[in-house]
Amino acid sequence: MKPMYSADGDGSGPAALVELSRRYGAAGRYVLAGGGNTSWKNATDLYVKASGHSLDGIGPEGFVRMRAPALAAVLTADYPAESAAREAAVLADLEAAKYPGEEAKRPSVETLLHGLFPFRFVVHTHPALVNGLTCSAEGEAGVRRLFGPDPLWIPVTDPGYVLALAVKKAIDARLAAGRSFPQVVYLQNHGVFVAADSVREIDEIYAALMARLEAEVAVDPADLAPAALADPAAAAAWEAAIAAVYGLSAAVLPVATADLSRLMAAGAAEAALEYAFTPDHIVYFGYKPLYLRSPAELAAAVAAYESDDGRKPRIVVAHGLGAFACAATAKAAATARALFLDDLAIAAYTRSFGGHRFMPRANIEFIRHWEAEKYRSAVSN
Ligand SMILES: [Zn+2]
């Protein structure tokens, strides 16, 4: 295979994208599983993360080389108003914007948004700290209070083409008002985009925003760390019920934190876990955890969830005890567990910003049925 990137002596070329992406993919602070995406561009080429690849440990083969002008054209083209027809037409144009040799890879669902920024590097992530703010009641007011007028705030919207178009309209309005192009975009119930011409500037922007959020949240990190289930006898009863419903070969992992135990004791856990917060939570553990009070409820509740969602819930919350990540494979269970711990952290952080705010049901429904996210979910198993 021919080398994908040419020499990159000054650290401003596409080879720097691989190193940058690996750093932001490592350690779970910025993204989990296949979440987040990164890109590099010049006037003719845009390299963007391929859908389903994890930033953690990514190599050059994890990026798709696209024709930058063809991507820009998608955002000014006319598409059908009906959702499924529009998404199919956009997907076809995205496929056509790939360079020859890239046929086997599928560009990230946020490729169009990457193409919007007139900056060399774009790093899009979903840190729990950031989503504590974007999934909170305070929302945009919190962004203004902490970060001033410069970052763009985009109210919750469907991902992909619809999101890219919403951001383009907001930026066009800003530019028309004589303001500069934003380098930070906060997406409600989703995450953050950071754009800059150098790796150093990307790092500086991220370090500043993460430090500001860290100083704002009043949560002891130890309260969000994985802990053991407190009651082994109760845990055994739940595990037996799960084995009976999910099958003996299912992978089952316990999940508990001190913060979750306190929320349960205060009677506040069920409300804080009613729905998913962001697209990643929907893709990797489902549109909501299944919250139950007794193992005796499990069989009927899982059957009802499955008939509605098409798959069994991957997170079963056992009131007064903790939760279980349940999936057909060990990898899928571990990913669901990681995303649920992230969900718990977000719920805790939102308490510093006026309380939680779930993704609206209409947006949840779009993602549950969106072909692009079904693809991402399928390749994670
Ligand atoms: Zn995202």
Brief synopsis:
The chain is of the alpha+beta class. It contains 16 helices and 11 strands. α5 (128-134) crosses α14.
Describe the structure.
α5 crosses α14. The chain starts with 14 loop residues before the first helix and ends with a helix. A hairpin with a 3-residue loop joins β6 and β7. With 381 residues, it is α+β, with helices and mostly antiparallel strands. The site of zinc ion has 5 residues, from loops.
Task: Give the end-to-end Cα distance, rounded to a whole number of Å.
Answer: 28 Å
Q: What hetero molecules are bound to the protein chains?
A: zinc ion
Give the percentage of residues in beta strands: 5-15%
Number of DSSP helices?
Answer: 16
- Based on secondary structure, the structural category is alpha+beta
How do the SSEs run, as a string of H and E?
HEEEHHHEHHEHEEHHEHHHEHEEHHH
Shape: globular
Radius of gyration: 21 Å
Oligomeric state of shown chains: single chain
Unreliable residue stretches: 1-7
